Amino acid sequence: MIDNFSPAYFTRAGATYIGDSRELLAALPDDSVNLVMTSPPFALQRQKEYSNLDQHEYIDWFLGFAKLVYRKLKDNGSFVVDFGGAYMKGVPARSLYNFRVMIRMVDELGFFLAEDFYWFNPSKLPSPIEWVNKRKLRAKDSINTVWWFSKTEWPKSDITKVLAPYSTRMKKLIEDPDKFYTPKHRPSGHDIGRGFAKDNGGAIPPNLLQIPNSESNGQYLSACRAIGVKGHPARFPAKLPEFFIRLLTDPDDLVVDIFGGSNTTGQVAETEGRYWMVFEAHPEYVGASAFRFLDQGMAPEFMKNIYDRIVSGESVNLDECRRQSALAF
Fold first, then answer.
1. What is the pLDDT of residues 102-146, one digit of tens each?
2. 165 catalytic residue (yes or no)
3. Does the annotation mark 241 as catalytic?
4. What is the pTM of this model?
5. Which of 143, 185, 222, 223 is the most buried (most CB within 10 A)?
6. How far is CA 209 from each of CA 78, 117, 151, 186, 323, rounded to the nearest angstrom?
7. Is 82 within 8 Å of 241 (Cβ atoms)?
8. Confidence category of residue 290, pLDDT binned at 50, 70, 90
């Protein structure tokens, strides 16, 4: 819990707060957070219902949050930010706002770029409409940049926690290396010996993360439909924060999301045994995000009551709500 701030809702492992993230971040102790994982509103030219800024204003606006994040991170902590791409206004030329954010984070605030990741969403619809669908001048934009910043050169990380499944061919190689591979010298000078066939439990993942964003019948959206409220329009898939939470934190570490939206980050953090805090400015989004922590079979009227209580400003204990719902049935 944060001193002088009441959570909109909370569980045994975390809490969501309604308000300006800058005020909420400022109230946290310095050097207390292991990971900040977030997806801020993108710097789009066309105004969205969840709010966004002009690209030229956006960078200064975002750095105001990042400066506070730097203070709150532990020395081995990380700040992972998902940025969507954008075009310049009125022309089929790309904006560089996300790259300018990255450079200024390093040059001005003292962050290190631990690694650059690229999230490929194969289910993303063709966009932008003007240049892709109508005039057919550009390929569809299917990649988000995901910057992994760290407070020092040596953030906590363990790639063995996010190993990818071996390919069918690699599994056969491990089972019978002599049948599928003969150690030899390669023209590149990178010689590969028999140790290449060792079973390490999985393959080292690349920094291109292929994760579809096509959820349609999960608990969150099903509950939104059941009580007649609109879900957040820009959710990221659970696999994205899951990757970085596993890579960069340990059980009982603290994960924070400063642009909580539908609270995918908090849900994943709790599932992974981490503590979490999430900040979001819009009460309606916070009320609906509570559905991620409720039981699938909870009655719609019970969920509606929880939503209304949160939106009206009451602080709701979701663990107690689940207990009461179970007793009612």
1. 999 999 999 999 999 999 999 888 888 899 999 999 999 999 999
2. no
3. no
4. 0.89
5. 223
6. 18, 7, 23, 28, 38
7. no
8. very high
Tokens describing residue 23: 């005020």
Per-residue pLDDT of 194-204, as tens digits, reads 555 677 778 89
- Say whether 251 is catalytic: no
Do 123 and 250 sit in the same domain of this protein? Answer: yes
Of 21, 39, 78, 150, the active-site residue reads: 39
Tell me the C-alpha distance between 75 and 52, whole Å: 31
- Among residues 82, 141, 253, 257, which one is catalytic? 82
**Is 110 within the bounds of a domain?**
yes
Give the helix ranges, DSSP H, for the chain. 21-27, 55-72, 97-109, 168-175, 177-180, 219-227, 239-248, 264-271, 283-289, 300-311, 318-328
Final residue of a structural domain among 143, 175, 203: 203
Residue ranges making up the domain that contains 180: 165-203
